[in-house]
Every structure is written in structure tokens, then in C-alpha cells.
Amino acid sequence: MTAIAHIQEFLACETPDSWVRWALENQSLLLLDHANCEKKAASTALTLMYRYVEDFELMHKMSRLAREELRHYEQVMTLMEKRSVAYAQITPCRYASELRKPVRTHDPARLVDTLIVGAIIEARSCERFAKLAPHLDEELKNFYLSLLKSEARHYQDYLALARKAARDESIDERIALFLELEKSLIESPDDTFRFHSGVPQAA
Hints:
Elements (H helix, E strand, L loop, with lengths): L4 H6 L6 H9 L1 H25 L4 H27 L12 H5 L9 H24 L5 H28 L6 H16 L1 E2 L8 E2 L3
Parallel strand pairs: 1-2
């Protein structure tokens, strides 16, 4: 788990143990929402490729990221089929939509903020895979551990692209703003379990 120490240091909080217990009680839903997350991550990368065609490095990294996310999606779907977990449409949690609310509406600021949000989502996903893995059956444990390297690289790519898009301006204040918002979402109660939900709401 030391391989993601830099991610644990980057995030403003760790995933609460109450969320881990919630996930273990909802493993079919965990897989279903994980599949949706991988699909959304690929879609986000493709959207950035279409919107910022003048940035060769961004397009190259987002192309690779989209391919990897779709490969992960296929792997989750294979696990779901093997475990007789039906695919169904489910509503997303508030995490991503709330995290994107402070994104500015003019470029290059919009691109900077969007990339910061992408970095934080990838970092949190990586942290949660690592936190869940020790509690899962061998097959799912090995799968989640296998995702750590690519998810950590996605976080680093997003952050590096954000710094590049900002040119000579520091993005530290923007990162701090989004990290503080993300912390509040991770630590506050949710009434429905999702991969990026907060802690379970008290009965």
C-alpha cells in the first residue's frame, strides 16, 4: 500500500471506516457503480480530447486514459457477469456534480479546474481501491490492487496537465479549494451507497 503514499498525502482526508463497512455490505452495488465510474471516466477524457484539440500532450494522455478506463470497465463487467450481478441504470451520487460546481466557466481557468477535479477523483478512486482490497475475496482483491498503478498515473497526468494549462500561475489555491470540498463530501452522510458516496446516514 506504500505505493500510493503520495496520494494519501495529497488528499485532505482518508476514506472513513464506516464507508468501507458499507461497501462490504453492498458488493454487488459496488461493482455496478464501479463499472459506471469507469465508463464516465472514459467519457470525460474523450470530451477533453474533443474540446482542446490544440493541446497535443493533453489529447495523447486523454486517449491513453480513455482506453485504460474502458478496459477497466470491461474487466468489471466480466466480474459482474461471473458473479451474476445484473447491470442496471442507477443514479449517480452527488460527489462528482458537487465537486464540479466551483469550476470556472472561462478558459484556460475552466480547463485548469476540470483537470484538478479529474486528478482528485482519480486519487480518491485509487485510495478507495487500496482501502477496500484487504477486506475482499482473493479475486476482487487482486483486481483492485491491479488498478492502483494506472489510477495513480491518471491522477498525476491530470495534475501535470492542470499545471501546464495554468502556464506560469500557481494552482495551489485552486487545488486546496477543491480538496476541502472533496473532504466535506467524503465525510458527510449519504442515504445511498455509491463508490464515491460519503458515510452512511444514521438510521
